[in-house]
Amino acid sequence: MSTAARSRCRWTFSSCRAPCPASCCAEAPIDTVPGASGHGLKALLLDPALFTAPYDAALSRGLEAAGVQPRWLTRPLRRDEEPALPPRAVRPLFYRMTDGPRRRVGRLAKVAKGVEHWLGLAAAGREARSWRPDVIHLQWLVLPLLDARGVRRLRRVAPVVMTVHDVTPFNGKDVSALQRRGFAEALALADRLIVHTAGSRAQLVEAGLPAAHIDVVPHGLLETPVGSAAPAVDEAGDARWRIVQFGRIQHYKGVDLLIEALGRIAPADRARIEVVVAGEPQVDTAPLLARARALGLEDTIDFRFGFLSERAMGDLLASADAFVFPYRTIEASGVLHLVAGLERLIVASDTGAFPDLIGRDGAAGTLVDPADPDRLAAALVDTIGRRPTRGIGDAVPGWDEIGRRTRAVYERARRQWAGRGAAGS
Prior knowledge:
Blueprint: H1 3-9, H2 22-25, E1 41-46, H3 53-65, E2 68-74, E3 90-92, H4 107-131, E4 135-138, H5 144-154, E5 160-163, H6 177-180, H7 183-189, E6 192-195, H8 198-207, E7 214-216, E8 232-233, E9 239-246, H9 255-263, H10 267-270, E10 273-279, H11 286-294, E11 301-305, H12 310-319, E12 322-325, H13 334-339, E13 345-349, H14 354-358, E14 365-368, H15 373-382, H16 399-420
Parallel strand pairs: 1-2, 1-4, 2-3, 4-5, 5-6, 6-7, 9-10, 9-12, 10-11, 12-13, 13-14
Antiparallel strand pairs: 8-9
């Protein structure tokens, strides 16, 4: 693996298995795999922390349309959370003491949650042995060292498919060495991997995973919660141009980069816009607030830290005139797919899936270098009063097609697993 790839990925795949025989892994197009529309299949899907509930729900609908019966293993819902998945299809086996309505935070809670993660994996194993699914599909690696051991056990029951939403582990987040350990091993143990872009697939291949084990299934558009538009209004009663950054507040999402860019905008232009940063913090927000005050942005940026109900989220997204994604790194953004149908200009970092969806012609938005605050500032001002002339979801397949492609991956995994032997790794 090249030095650049090692820097980008931060892991190698020394434990990769040799490629399986060509008969079970042939790189035929996904939609031509024999048996992809035959008898019904049972799929046990794991999203322990419920990171991507809207994606999970949309994928479930697509799988059902493809003749797959999904059953999800997740955490319990938190207070004020609305169910995205139908209750009949969910088993809340993870974090029943530290999350959901009993959610706890802090260092001790993290330790307890780690213990509960292992207990949840054990419960997932029991569920798999009882329900006997045709395939087991992991959406996220939460504690990869434990997840790798869990995958070994789950593979005794059925083939394991894993979606790699983020090729760079934790999107470069500064996590503990314990939390990083096992990432490469867990990916190498899966029978098949799903990524959302050809670029992500190329990164995994460069990192050492067999190309024949990796399938590209795009991320579909997500249904935007219904909301009523409420434009921002300044002290004189004039509508201000509202630019929204929405989603969990994490380092890789570049809220600090956005603040620096806003500080570069001339006061007269700043008076014309309102920037809303909304979402549940996963980082210390005190430095963000202090920097915004130091740059005199109190009247420009509106921090809405905390969980937003579906209605509040719908109202906020509907009120936006433009959206900004100043991410340091990303593979596929669920929030981008959530707002794609709102026909707003997008300002986003030139990374991950953003170039493929937004394009470089300026019709749907602008791509910027996240390390260039002047360029980001100019792109934000340039959105004022403008609407896109092209949608960003025109080339994205629907969820029925995504469900069909995912089922084809399941069929490949089953043949591969049967050919290698259930316990083989």
